[in-house]
Amino acid sequence: MKKFVALMMALILALSVCAVASAEGAKKVGIAMPTQSLERWNRDGAYLEAQFKEAGYDTIVTFSNNDNDQQVRDLENMLSQDVDLLIISCIDSDGLNTVLNDAADKGIPVIAYDRMIFNDAVSYYVSFDNYTVGKLQGEFVRDALDLDNAGDKTFNMEFTGGAPTDPNAFYFFNGAYDVLKPYIDAGTVIIPSGQNEMGQVGTEQWSTDTALARAQNILGSFYGDGATVLDAWLCSNDSTAAGVAQAIESDYAGDNAVIVTGQDGDIANLKNIVDGKQTMTVYKNVANEAIVTLAVAKAILEGGDFDGAAFAAAQEIECAYDTESYASSEGHPTPSFLLVPTVVTKDNLDYLVGTGLYVMGDDGYLQAAK
User: Which CA distances in Å does 312 have to 1, 296, 321?
Assistant: First the structure.
């Protein structure tokens, strides 16, 4: 708890100061985020900037409006300003090769943040255990529908995945699908749309509007007669869950409660959880992700030997050191620090309050801590 309080104090201080004089000889860190259109990336950018400024680093922070070409230009600008380190949450995992090759030529290390980048300039990867995120979603649906004791009963469900350019989207989907596949194969779980592959369920740019339009189409095509009951809709994150929940509210004729999953803990989605429009979210504490990223960055910039396993074990925040699961190219595994996600439902919203990053409003809805 002290860690979180300290983080929030640092964040408030960093955001309240319009200009801070750079320390003489301070290292410069470039932080490239994908977009400001999704709540979570605003949080990531703010937490990272606050952490690095508090630690005495100069920072350049950019948001690229989900435009890969813009992110390339942002990174080129950072290189022209002689940054000492790049922290990148990519828009397109395959779309940064030229600029990252330039970074490698200049000897500038790269941390892939939250999303893996397929370029060998990447030195380390800091994220959550993304397969486990999907696994938690699948297990939640399995347990909520009590699939292990279904007998002859069947359930109808649909899937909405994330952006095909985001490698995390595949980990999320596969983690969930691997849990549910035995029940799908057994006929206990039915997918009336027949859409059960990432190529069919993916959502460009994780767009709420795109998820909404697809969900409306599925509901009209396969559930419009009112006779087909929708039991669950597994959504990989909160922005897609928002679109699906809206479609269910407006276009689904059934009167049963539909299980809707999500991820991130966006404020609007937490409200939907209280109101029963969404059932759960997998919460990833991005403040913790920023803390671990800073620790890795310090180790890189200070040089010397770096024992990743010992480093991970020494962190106050639970994270695993993984040297096998993620690779920047075939045969080139990337050392990764993977944090642990948490399932949040209406019943344990106090967990979020306990992080110090949310407060409960008088209206019964969570708000971001000021």
Answer: 19, 9, 6
pLDDT in tens, 85-94: 999 999 999 9
Q: Are 152 and 109 in contact (CB under 8 A)?
A: no
The neighbouring-strand residues paired with 282 are 263, 343
What is the phi/psi pair of residue 60, to 5°?
-125, 120
For each of the domains in the chain, give its residue range(s) and CATH number, in order of start. Answer: 2-128+285-340 (3.40.50.2300), 130-263 (3.40.50.2300)
In degrees, to the nearest 5, what angle opens at C-alpha 235 toward C-alphas 230 and 241?
Answer: 90
| Predicted TM-score of the model (pTM) | 0.88
Q: Which has the minimum average pLDDT: 14-28, 66-80, 168-182, 316-330?
A: 14-28
pLDDT value at 4 more than 60: no
Encode burial over 109-141: b for 16+ CB neighbours within 10 A, e otherwise: bbbbbbbbbbbbbbbbbbbbbbbbbbbbbbbbb
pLDDT at 7: 42
Q: How far apart, in Å, do the first and last CA atoms of the chain sit? A: 16
Question: Tokens representing 170?
Answer: 């595949």
Q: What is the pLDDT of residues 233-288, one digit of tens each?
A: 999 999 999 999 999 999 999 999 999 999 999 999 999 999 999 999 999 999 99
Q: Which two tokens stand for residue 90?
A: 């990519």
Q: Which helix (H) or strand (E) holds 295?
A: helix 286-302
The secondary structure of 190-250 as a DSSP string is E-TT---SHHHH--GGG-HHHHHHHHHHHHHHHSTTS-SPP-EEEESSHHHHHHHHHHHHH
Question: Using CA of residue 291, residue 109, residue 74, residue 88, what is the dihedral sign?
Answer: negative
- Report in angstroms the alpha-carbon separations of 119 from 62, 68, 271: 20, 15, 39
At 291, phi and psi to the nearest 5? -65, -45
Count, in order, helices (H) and strands (E) of the chain.
Answer: 13, 17
